[in-house]
Amino acid sequence: MSDHTPSSLNYCLHSVWERTQRKHLWSGLLACARWIVPLFLVAVLIDRFAFLPGWARAIMAVAILVVGVRHGWRHGWSRLRPYNATRAAQEIEQAQGGMDSLLVTAVHFQKSGAAPGTSAAMWELTQRKAEEAAGKIPPQKVVTMRDLKGPARVAMGLAAVLLIFAVVNGPFLMAGLGRIFT
After folding, report:
1. What does the pLDDT look like over 59-69, one tens digit per residue?
2. What angle do CA 99, 105, 111 make, to 5 degrees?
3. Which of 79, 85, 77, 88 is nearest to 139 (CA)?
4. Is residue 110 within 8 Å of 3, Cβ to Cβ?
5. H-helix segments, the chain
């Protein structure tokens, strides 16, 4: 069996990996937004009262982007990884518990096949049990998105502040956007 053989084990491993990647991507985006929006509003207010020259606004814009990207990297983007079946199997086993390395062993058997001197019946039994176990595992139970609720609420709150700001004084917001990023 190869890594590309369609099976419930491979489907489960790939689904868990995709969900993990999605979680890290959104975590980074939310962290980035959590910092960029308030810093932008502060920069607009500073520029409004200090009437900064163009080079100072450019430095503020770069600083805002650097801080936002840095926090996005720290809180999610640095954890984005290429697909690794062994890592996904370990994540599933850690979340589910009581699997006694069944999935990791099956992944190793898929990659290398049965080692010389290994019982073919034992190899097939391990593969079958791993396939059965993987068919019963929902990726939502392994990788929960609960951790993103707080950051998502903060981001929605910041978006609401920007929306209210745009409704109350849209030209001021547009002027701030124009001045900071030009």
Report:
1. 988 999 999 99
2. 145
3. 88
4. yes
5. 8-50, 54-75, 85-96, 102-112, 120-135, 139-142, 149-180
